[in-house]
Design brief:
Shape: globular
Number of domains: 4
Radius of gyration: 28 Å
Distance between the termini: 55 Å
Number of strands: 23
CATH architecture of the largest domain: Sandwich
Helix content: 10-25%
Strand content: 25-35%
Order of helices and strands: HHHHHHEEEEEEEEEEEHEEEEEEEEEEEE
Strand order of the largest sheet: 9-8-12-21-14-15-16-17
């Protein structure tokens, strides 16, 4: 069913024969599905699924994205709609079980229920409404929704301060859809419903970074614009749950401590951070200017963490943010490798479905980490040994930021992120009295 559905999408986009389709064609289909559903499926994944190259059912998000393309909210709804249509078609050519067939002298040849064939006259009377209904459904799903008539823009109210209110301006009066939303970033939980004949709404960004705000009609992303909340310095904050956005800012007089980028437990307490639940602590740097490609750079750092509470599985994650995607290396101890994860562009790899023991190490001890990216080919080295390599398809565009994330407090001995063009995104040994 997945293959058939994808082939229908190919045909709707002018690719009647999938065999000669190139990678660029599959990337075009990827863009069309993302535009309609707001969910990204890589061109490589679409090609693989369209050829039946999968050993198990694809991820729910992938199935829902396909269903969204056919104006269904979920894969189950999509399957149900197909079954309903098939059932209607069957009912037009057969009358089931309740009407016995009459033989000579009005005797029943059998007491068993039987089916009868309809005459051409009755057949046409039954089929005609089905054809009309099907044509109506087709027109409804392909009616012009005037997405191009929407407008969407916004501006920050306080420069790059945190938190930061953004004023969104929009016009959806000429767009045909049942519901409209503004989503401030990648997170679908951060959606705010909007209505026609209203043109302004505000929302708060609690964390820095390069965000892509989206205007959504039903389940289709119809407009986007970029919001850059830069820091031009290191900022520190805590979160109990990333998607809950219970952001707590951490104040420090100086994050230069013993030749390392670091903060202390005392500074957490002075900042009013509640340490009773386990939290993640983020050290983030987002410059205003972007001059390094996210597909060609080298990151080198030396890092460890100190526990704030007694964590069963302490971890360190190093994240490189791009204008469109990001890269993440989350490492933990060998015994907790199940919780390790990697993310490069559109490619997510988690320790529950893959062996990531090669990127696991004792995060409470100093470790040298190197991330080398050349033309979307990734190589990870830990303590000068190659730990992992892979490729990805979707470009990050320009690098926008860098974070160290942990359920303890990181200490960073040094960090350098340099593009293959020789330009430096950030470089510091944290051994000077004044640091950006």
């Amino acid at each position: 069913m997945v293959r058939v559905s994808l082939q229908k999408i190919f045909s709707m986009n002018g690719y009647d024969d999938p065999e000669p389709m190139t990678q660029r064609n599959f990337e075009h289909i990827s863009s069309e599905i993302e535009r309609k559903s707001g969910i990204s499926i890589s061109g490589t994944t679409i090609r693989r699924l369209s050829r039946g190259e999968f050993n198990r059912l694809p991820q729910i998000a992938t199935l829902n994205a396909i269903a969204n393309y056919f104006d269904c909210k979920t894969w189950q709804e999509y399957k149900s709609s197909l079954k309903s249509m098939n059932a209607d078609a069957t009912d037009t050519v057969e009358v089931a079980d309740a009407i016995p067939k009459i033989e000579d002298n009005d005797n029943y040849a059998s007491k068993r229920t039987q089916r009868i064939k309809l005459s051409p006259k009755w057949m046409s009377l039954l089929i005609a409404p089905i054809i009309i209904l099907g044509y109506y459904i087709y027109l409804k799903s392909h009616e012009r929704k005037n997405f191009e008539n929407a407008s969407f823009s916004g501006h920050k109210t306080t420069g790059n301060d945190l938190p930061n209110t953004v004023v969104f301006r929009f016009d959806i009066d000429k767009v045909r859809a049942d519901s409209f939303f503004i989503q401030q970033s990648w997170d679908k939980n951060r959606r705010v419903r909007i209505h026609k004949n209203h043109y302004t709404i505000t929302d708060i960004y609690y964390e820095p970074g390069y965000h892509i705000a989206k205007l959504i009609a039903d389940d289709s992303v119809i407009k986007t614009f970029d919001i850059n909340i830069a820091t031009d310095k290191w900022v520190f904050y805590a979160n109990e749950n990333k998607t809950a956005y219970g952001t707590e800012y951490i104040n420090t007089k100086s994050f230069l401590k013993g030749g390392s980028l670091a903060i202390t437990k005392e500074e957490l307490l002075e900042s009013g951070v509640d340490l009773s639940p386990e939290k993640m602590f983020l050290y983030s740097y987002f410059p205003s200017k972007h001059a390094i490609s996210g597909d060609n750079f080298t990151l080198k750092t030396r890092v460890r963490m100190k526990e704030v509470t007694n964590n069963r599985c302490p971890y360190i994650a190093v994240e490189v943010y791009g204008q469109r995607f990001f890269m993440l290396i989350k490492s933990t101890g060998k015994g907790c490798a199940n919780l390790a994860s990697l993310w490069f562009g559109e490619k997510a790899i988690n320790g529950q479905e893959a062996d990531l023991s090669s990127v696991a190490y004792d995060v409470k001890e100093w470790a040298d980490l190197e991330l080398n990216v050349r033309n979307k080919h990734v190589t990870i080295k830990i303590n000068d040994h190659e730990a992992f390599s892979t490729t990805y398809q979707r470009s990050l565009n320009m690098i926008t930021g860098l974070s160290f994330i942990s359920n303890g407090l990181c200490e960073v001995d040094h960090v350098s992120l340099v593009g293959s063009n020789g330009k430096t995104f950030y470089q510091n040994n944290f051994n000077q009295s004044s640091i950006d």
